[in-house]
Write a sequence for this structure.
């Protein structure tokens, strides 16, 4: 089971780019990297998923180096509404759900 | 609109009582999951199910039970054996195990 390590918290200001890095040193060959966002009293929401190099969608980018031992979620020009907890997960679901472990996540606070 | 519906949003349990949390999805997803979240913590997996009439224990299954009689429904019963049931409970589904999960808005359970 690939364990992930993220910073517990981060602060940023509106309009800045935010990069949250996740370490996963024992990532397996078949593992994907998935990021979720969670607001208070709501369920997590899927942001982005990748396997290698770079993935971009309408809300974020995910950078994965060649060794895949870490990944960086990039949020361009954050706003106050991006204040949330961000979770990095690594796994392929091969063991039916047991491969996905939600750690404490990174609490991002966006300041005006 | 497709999605996951959890009910009720708030639930109160008396000592020694069993309570059942509802989770329904109309996404035609095969896999469904139950998580528990305590304040300031990540999500912990209680039970998961890949197909109808089959489910597996997660990391913290003691004091909980589930059923999967229909593809759309995955109710969770918090039994009186669960000594510390106060938490935020989240249900999720995915097309198959390993795919990004879609979450409901949760049920907050408290003890009277």
């Amino acid at each position: 089971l690939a364990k992930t390590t993220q910073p517990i918290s981060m602060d940023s200001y509106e309009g800045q780019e935010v990069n949250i890095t996740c370490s996963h040193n024992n990532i397996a060959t078949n593992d994907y990297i998935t990021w979720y966002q969670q607001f208070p009293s709501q369920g997590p929401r899927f942001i982005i998923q990748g396997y290698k190099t770079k993935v971009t969608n309408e809300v974020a980018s995910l950078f994965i180096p060649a060794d895949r031992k870490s990944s960086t979620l990039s949020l361009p020009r954050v706003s106050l509404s991006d204040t949330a907890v961000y979770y990095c997960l690594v796994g392929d679901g091969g063991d039916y759900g047991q491969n996905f472990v939600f750690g404490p996540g990174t609490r991002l606070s966006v300041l005006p | 609109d497709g999605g996951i519906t959890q009910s009720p949003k708030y639930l109160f349990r008396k000592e020694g009582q069993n309570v059942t949390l509802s989770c329904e999805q109309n996404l035609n997803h095969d896999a469904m999951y139950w998580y528990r979240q305590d304040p300031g913590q990540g999500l912990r997996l209680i039970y998961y199910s890949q197909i109808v009439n089959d489910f597996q224990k997660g990391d913290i299954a003691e004091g909980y039970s589930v059923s999967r009689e229909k593809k759309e429904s995955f109710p969770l019963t918090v039994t009186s054996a669960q000594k510390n049931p106060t938490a935020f409970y989240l249900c999720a589904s995915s097309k198959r195990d390993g795919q990004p999960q879609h979450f409901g808005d949760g049920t907050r359970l408290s003890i009277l």
User: Anything to note?
Assistant: Chain A has a mean pLDDT of 89. The first strand of chain A starts at residue 9 and ends at 13. The CA atoms of residues 85 and 107 of chain A lie 4 Å apart. Strands of chain A lie at 9-13, 18-23, 32-38, 45-50, 53-56, 61-64, 70-75, 84-91, 106-111.
